[in-house]
Design goal:
eight-stranded antiparallel β-sheet
Length: 469
């Protein structure tokens, strides 16, 4: 049974434990307690929802430091969580230890072998820059400040999925610190079952300190490694009509695209619909593919080429830390225009009922079908790789008193978009939600049984999480 610092130690012995930690980690590592310079900044997160105050924040600088910390916390039965970009709801803890990987990071690209080693708390933008310099790319998230490794081991939904699959399908090998502090290699030849688990459920088995990922030539995205962005705006009254046209466009199997169809509040224009398409090809091909939308009398249409390095720069406004933000992703069986129209109405109700929520955005995300070869042949524990449509709900507000009311809108949005969907087809994404039944997140019962067996072997006490026990 895990206990907190206050339960285990007197005030004097807490100081002794912290001093012992400082003596065990590298000299450049930081061991911060409440009141220390840098503690408050280190405890800042992407959202203040459920932000807790740990007893200690440790910022290791080596893999050995991470192993030492896990072993010490496990032996003392003190709860701990790892943190990279601070986006995860599970990277904050009350009166325990946060292992903050922000000072332990490295990216090593081997373009000749189409591989990259990602270590520690590397953020998405840092990975994009390193790969772009070597003329390579891989699956990344829509957020420059998201931690790369946690995103990938949880599955890794990506705009690049139509080309190269989900992030977990591009994991070639890993290094992981398990409960007793050992550092294990997981590869096709060494601990292959653990590698399989890391590809989609890695966060339940330890702290993954390194991933080796498959990389790809940017020419897959289009000539000169450039993809095409098309942004089309419509009034909200046309939600069902535009959604129907979009459904027909993206259902065709003659192109590779991904994108978002969202309802949002523009500070100047008010509530508005936006189709944000990413097309892998040339500008004229983008225009030809999305012509039914472009020619349907939109309010505006913008076209802009973009490179991998700048993948998420247009979303930088979503990245600042603080305030109250919640992001959830729910898998959908299809694009349903009637349901989307009701979702648009719900967004209006949210903004009218709860002032201060104007930055909230409701979105359908789509990916065209991914070819069943290359990364798709990789065996993973991720049970959702055939899901091509997602509901993304970003709620954002400043008044903590409306937490529960906003959460109810989030749940209503899911209910609307799941209308006429049998519960056995419900899909949730483990990187954003773990309160739903595990069968919503991992659809293969045999895979879940195997994950539970591996959990009992590698983390029988639930040192990292009680999930799968």
């Amino acid at each position: 049974m895990l206990a907190s610092f206050k339960q285990l130690f007197s005030r004097d012995s807490i100081g002794d434990f912290v001093s012992d930690l400082r003596s065990k980690v590298s000299e450049d590592s930081q061991v911060l307690t409440q009141g220390d310079p840098g503690f408050a900044e280190a405890n800042e997160r992407w959202t203040d929802i459920d932000r807790k105050t740990p007893a200690v924040i440790v910022q290791p600088v080596t893999e050995h430091d991470v192993a030492v910390l896990v072993k010490a916390a496990h032996e003392a039965k003190i709860p701990f969580v790892p943190a990279s970009g601070g986006h995860s709801p599970w990277s904050t803890i009350e009166d325990g230890i946060v292992i903050d990987l922000s000072k332990f990071k490295d990216v090593c690209v081997d373009a000749d072998q189409h591989k990259v080693a990602v270590r520690g708390g590397v953020l998405m933008k840092e990975l994009q820059i390193a790969l772009s310099e070597k003329h390579q790319f891989t699956t990344v998230a829509n957020g420059n400040t998201v931690g790369a490794i946690p995103y990938m081991i949880g599955g890794g939904i990506s705009s690049y999925t139509p080309l190269i699959g989900y992030a977990c399908e591009n994991i070639l090998a890993a290094r992981i610190v398990v409960a007793n502090g050992d550092v294990l290699v997981a590869s096709e030849t060494e601990n292959p079952d653990l590698l399989w688990a890391i590809r989609g459920a890695g966060q339940f088995f330890g702290i993954v300190t390194e991933l080796v990922l498959r990389t790809h030539d940017p020419s897959l995205m289009g000539p000169d490694g450039v993809r095409q962005l098309g942004t089309i705006f419509y009034p909200t009254a046309r939600a069902s009509e535009v959604c129907s046209v979009l459904k027909n466009v993206v259902s065709a199997n003659d192109h590779a695209s991904a994108g978002h169809f969202m309802v949002m509040n523009d500070p100047d224009k008010g509530r508005i619909l936006m189709v944000a398409a990413q097309y892998f090809g040339t500008g004229p091909e983008l225009h030809a593919t999305f012509k039914p939308l472009i020619d349907s009398d939109p309010l505006d249409y913008l076209h802009q080429p973009s490179t991998f390095e700048k993948h998420s720069d247009h979303l930088a406004w979503m990245c600042p830390k603080g305030e109250f933000k919640r992001f959830s992703q729910t898998g959908l069986t299809s694009i349903n225009p009637d349901n989307f129209s009701r979702l648009v109405d719900l967004h209006k109700e949210l903004l009218e009922t709860l002032p201060g929520t104007e930055r909230s955005v409701f979105t359908i995300e789509w990916h065209t079908k991914t070819p069943d070869h290359g990364p798709r042949e990789t065996e993973t524990s991720f049970g959702l790789k055939n899901i091509d449509t997602w509901l993304n709900i970003l709620t954002w507000y400043t008044d903590p008193s409306i937490h529960e009311q906003v959460l109810r809108f989030d749940k209503r949005a899911q209910e609307i978009m799941r209308t006429d969907t049998n519960e056995d087809a419900f899909v949730s994404y483990t990187n954003t939600s773990r309160s739903d039944p595990i069968s919503h997140r991992y659809k293969d019962a045999a895979a879940v049984a195997k994950l539970k067996e591996l959990k009992r072997h590698w983390d029988p006490e639930g040192c990292f999480t009680k999930e799968l026990l």
